[in-house]
Prior knowledge:
This protein has a domain at 22-132. The protein has three helices and no strands. It has helices at 22-37, 40-59, 74-179. Helix 1 (22-37) packs across helix 3. It holds the Pfam family DUF1003.
Amino acid sequence: xxxxxxxxxxxxxxxxxxxxxxxxxxxxxxxxxxxxxxxxxxxxxxxxxxxxxxxxxxxxxxxxxxxxxxxxxxxxxxxxxxxxxxxxxxxxxxxxxxxxxxxxxxxxxxxxxxxxxxxxxxxxxxxxxxxxxxxxxxxxxxxxxxxxxxxxxxxxxxxxxxxxxxxxxxxxxxxxxxxx
Length: 180
């Protein structure tokens, strides 16, 4: 029976968790090997292994030995060569994965730096705009005060002129009305 597609999930995605691919699993394995080989514990274990191998093949009776000291421990040399031949590529694979992660991280850092620069430039423009608006506002306040004082002075002059003109008209009326 065919299962009908669910409408609440995008196509190609099921409800089960996607299992990591074998390539990713192998990549994690290579990183584990590289991390393990770079530890003092690994070096100590490898040294103990070699010492035990040499001691076994030199101190035990001949019928229990499996690697001849007279031939230069050929089997031990082959074992260490085999270990090295697998270790080098695994370490290189782990380094390649780390390089890929570093490349992605550098790109993300670059994008983050670009966003921060754009945000900083935007904020700088906003601060400049606010400063200009404040300067304009302060200039307008000074201009209003000066204008207000000038208008008061003109009003006072007009009132003085009206009083003088009113006195002059009153005097003419007074003299003109007595003569008639």
